[in-house]
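Reviewer 2 asked us to include a model.

Predict the structure of this chain.
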Amino acid sequence: MNRTFFSQISQWSRWLQLALLTALLAPAASSAADHSTLEKDARKVYQNLIAKVPVAKSLAKDAVAVLVFPKIIKAGLVVGGQYGDGVLFRGDKAAGYYNTSGASYGLQAGAQQYGYAMFFMNEQALQTLNTAEGFEVGVGPSIVVVDQGMAKSLTSTTANDDIYAMIFGQTGLMAGIGLQGNKITRRQD
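Predicted model (structure tokens):
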């Protein structure tokens, strides 16, 4: 095989990656949910989460606010991206609307949909959410992703981190899931 053949394959692969990301992420970005629909969806998944997951109910009691992203779309083929809209709840009231987006590069392939909730346990952690540049996950307050093992032992007396995140409703097939590399910004609409 010659270099021209491999060069053409590499170029074709880049175009395929770009097309895949555009096809999967553009509809999510271009059809950002209106506030009432977004709030209704976020409230529904949040209420379902605290009804079915005891640790979520426990964290909700002590949290100063909870940011709920009911649907995140993530896709990638070597280069990946994700996007979703969410609602910040303080008590029972919607206090703001946000979006999350991120990009990644590495050994990855597939598409996935999921949601997550972030429980802000103190005012200082919540204040970082509204910085001018947006809240970058992994920079600033400590965030703990609650998995099934941790959920069994975490209580309101042992919860002493700034933010707890719970991922839920995963569908699709993609190797690995995490929040690293996400940036959360307040929606201006």
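DSSP finds five helices and six strands in the chain. Residues 3-186 form one domain. We have added this to the supplementary material.
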